[in-house]
Design goal:
This is ABC-2 transporter permease. Keywords: Membrane, Transmembrane, Transmembrane helix. This protein is 74% helix and 4% strand. It is mainly α. The chain has a three-stranded antiparallel beta sheet. The radius of gyration is 19 Å and the shape is globular. It starts with a helix and ends with a helix. The relative contact order is 0.15.
Length: 243
């Protein structure tokens, strides 16, 4: 078990080195823009609750993948095959599918966790409004909640790397992306209307009122999420012909 994770880490680190400078440049831009926008939305009080929620959800799902260089992103390889070029290239290596899948999870972690953690920390340091509303201990729980969300939900984005082989995949991907975006906007819009607070505000309240319970549930969801997305990726790799 540990040996497979070690091998997966080596593969992920090799790809990370190949895309390091482009990825770092993109991540720094995202880090600067996101931190500034989130701080700005909180300074606008209730009028910008929905904007902050959208920024948070995107940061912990799609944004890390968008920051990868284009040559490493999900794309049309040949014919009807759509996948990450890295997945196709490493198929010929003497490694198991389990190692390949774990390398994708680790690589996504490289792209996501540092920028997400730094953004969350700086938001608290630079926002007097949040400091007055949430204690350092409660905000630490809040960080755990969102970093965990970035794993048990965000890792779902990684499953696209393993690819698919079907006609009209490009159109389907565009349609699904548009559908997800609309659903996200509707969800974000409905929260302040029906539940008084936005998604981010509610997560702060939960972190304050139920720190132990929310931390425990987050950790459980992380464990379940990793196993679930690994199973989905393995199923996809068994179905897709990469030749």
């Amino acid at each position: 078990m540990l040996g497979s994770w070690k091998q997966a880490k080596s593969i992920a680190f090799l790809e990370w080195k190949m895309s390091f400078w482009k990825s770092i440049f993109s991540l720094l831009i995202v880090f600067t823009v996101y931190t500034s926008l989130i701080l700005f939305t909180y300074s606008m009080s209730d009028r910008a609750v929905g904007i902050a929620d959208v920024l948070f959800i995107l940061l912990f799902t799609f944004v890390p993948t968008w920051c990868k260089p284009k040559e490493f992103q999900y794309q049309q390889i040949n014919g009807n095959l759509w996948a990450s070029p890295s997945i196709v290239m490493i198929q010929n290596l003497p490694i198991t599918k389990d190692v390949i899948i774990k390398s994708r999870l680790i690589l996504y972690f490289f792209h996501s966790f540092p920028i997400q953690l730094l953004t969350l920390v700086l938001i608290y340091i630079l926002s007097e409004e949040i400091q007055l509303a949430v204690s350092p201990v409660s905000y630490f729980v809040f960080i755990i909640i969102w970093l965990s969300f970035g794993i048990y939900v965000g890792y779902g984005v990684v499953t696209t790397d393993t690819g698919t082989k079907a006609s009209h995949t490009g159109k389907l991907t565009v349609f699904l992306g548009f559908f997800v975006l609309i659903a996200l906007l509707l969800l974000v819009a409905s929260f302040p209307i029906f539940f008084q607070h936005g998604i981010v505000e509610w997560s702060m309240i939960i972190a304050q009122r139920y720190p132990f319970l929310s931390t425990t549930i987050s950790i459980v969801f992380v464990c379940l999420g990793i196993q679930y997305w690994k199973a989905i990726m393995k199923k996809t790799m068994n179905q897709v012909d990469y030749l």
